């Protein structure tokens, strides 16, 4: 899986990049065919310090995405990964039902 992290209007720390890579890598247990993961980090409102994380997964024949907002990038990424894990589980059950 190719992981691309983009930080808009700021420079992401290496610890944040490592955290994101480990979180996104956990999605491999739901689908081994994930080819690419694009993660976009940005500040929505600098006064309120709302941080947004958008994750776009490329799976053969499909594109899955999730966006989350919170007061911390780690929380935003974790919530987005949870959403994507649910989407991948649903995709897997659809594929299994199609085969039957």
Key terms for this structure?
100 residues; alpha+beta; Double Stranded RNA Binding Domain; four-stranded mixed sheet
Overall description:
This protein is α+β, with helices and mostly antiparallel strands and 100 residues long. The protein has a single domain, classed as Ribosome hibernation promotion factor-like (Double Stranded RNA Binding Domain). 39% of the residues lie in helices and 35% in strands. The protein has two helices and four strands; from the N terminus they run E-H-E-E-E-H. It has helices at residues 14-25, 73-99; strands at 2-7, 36-45, 50-59, 62-70. A four-stranded mixed sheet has the order 1-2-3-4, with helices on one face. Strand 2 (36-45) and strand 3 (50-59) form a beta hairpin. Helix 1 packs parallel to helix 2. The protein is elongated, with a radius of gyration of 14 Å. 19% of the residues are buried. The model has no long low-confidence stretch (mean pLDDT 91).
